[in-house]
Write a structure and sequence with these properties.
398 residues, alpha/beta, three-stranded antiparallel sheet
Length: 398
């Protein structure tokens, strides 16, 4: 596909590190924006210097970006240079601690005077309010807003097995940025948007807040609610195959139930009037799942998958993340990008989870080395080579 990516021509300055800010920048970069990662000379994004497994994550979240190293903290010249970059930019992402950029004299109010049409995305721990100055992290949001309580057994709160709050807050922020860009096209005005970790989790546990409002009962952790009944289905849980591997089976309609029973020869269950609708199957959970579990043990997980696919019943093999590298669907759809890693070699890392008939989001450039594009970006800004050399000699840039 040769159609330009939808955000080509949009310039973004990313003041972000680790996961949340880089995730927002990645979403915009993969969609075609020119994302310039503004980093501290000598150190850059903190994730660059983390242990191997974590530093490799840098190369996942920072593809398709450019890096410019400017001293914003110790150099007035560096801050003035940043303001010149802002004047020609559409979006700024601020993922630093509350008040950090304001303390440098580079908060939204200052930047908006330089570029009135600027869309400023602040990714913070909290939305404006009494707690907004607190330092905050993904795991803290999961603990304080109910997600860890709902995920682990009672008394053993458990964080989700990915940094979903950082990524989720970034995604909601980017949705708002795209809406603001659309609005700016009509009004010419920019705005500041804040997306926050705590409120992201509060939104996610909204289903449990609604349940509490309806029942008056306190929330109950997911492991304490039996599989299936917690979502209102009679057969909705993991079953173990003959090879010890587990398969989740979700029977959510009478059609599923009929086809399931036909496929596995469960004529007695299909004929049993106690099971002819979902409400009855839920009522039968004291014995029905155990009966089905006995049947599933007769087949390997591969055989179960083949049969369940054939009869069009929802199912999923339980897998580790690393096993996804061999997933036939992901490989056939080209959803895993060959991405260069530090020290040589490539990794298969995921594209954005979207598909368009008009454009393809591939790897335009690998994650940048620190300051790799400093000179390139400054030349685009109109600086001559001798000016750039002078800034480098004064350690304003790197």
């Amino acid at each position: 596909m040769t159609t330009p990516l939808p955000l080509e021509g949009v310039r973004v300055l990313e003041l972000g590190h680790i996961i949340a800010g880089p995730s927002a920048g990645l979403l915009l970069a993969d969609l075609g924006a020119d994302v310039i990662k503004v980093e501290r000379p000598g150190e850059g994004d903190q994730s660059r210097g983390m242990p191997a497994g974590t530093s490799a994550n840098f190369h996942f979240l920072n593809r398709n970006k450019r890096s410019i190293a400017i001293d914003l903290k110790g150099s007035a010249e560096g801050r003035a240079l940043f303001l010149r970059l802002v004047a020609g930019s559409d979006v700024v992402i601020d993922n630093f601690a509350h008040g950090a950029v304001e303390g440098l004299g580079l908060g939204y109010d200052v930047l908006a005077r330089v570029q009135p049409g600027l869309i400023y995305l602040a990714l913070k721990g909290f939305l404006p309010g009494p707690s907004e100055t607190r330092p905050f992290l993904d795991e803290l949001a999961q603990m304080s807003a109910g997600l860890a309580f709902m995920t682990g057994p009672r008394g053993q709160p458990l964080r989700v097995g990915a940094s979903i709050v950082d990524v989720g807050a970034a995604a909601y922020g980017v949705i708002a940025v795209l809406a603001a860009l659309h609005q700016r096209a009509q009004t010419g005005r920019g705005q500041k948007i804040t997306s926050a970790l705590f409120e992201t989790v509060v939104f996610w546990v909204g289903q449990w807040l609604a349940q509490h409002a309806a029942t008056g009962q306190p929330s109950v952790p997911m492991p304490e609610i039996r599989q299936g009944t917690r979502m209102g289905w009679g057969v909705y849980q993991l079953f173990t195959g003959a090879d010890g591997e587990q398969v989740f089976i979700g029977i959510t309609s009478n059609g599923h139930w009929e086809r399931f029973c036909d496929e596995f020869g469960l004529k007695d269950l299909l004929a049993d009037e106690r099971l002819d609708d979902n409400a009855k199957r839920v009522a039968a959970r004291a014995w029905l799942p155990a009966r089905i579990a006995e049947e599933m043990l007769r087949y390997s997980s591969v055989e179960l998958s083949e049969r369940l696919e054939r009869c069009r019943v929802p199912f999923a093999l339980l897998r580790r993340p690393d096993q996804l590298l061999d997933d036939a669907h992901l490989l056939a759809s080209g959803q895993l990008l060959d991405t260069p890693l530090p020290g040589g070699g490539n990794a298969k890392l995921p594209k954005l989870p979207i598909h368009s008939t008009a454009f393809d989001m591939g790897l335009q450039r690998p994650a940048p080395t620190l300051g790799e594009h400093t000179r390139e970006v400054l030349r685009e800004l109109g600086l001559e080579t001798d000016e750039i050399d002078a800034l480098a000699s004064r350690r304003v840039i790197a």
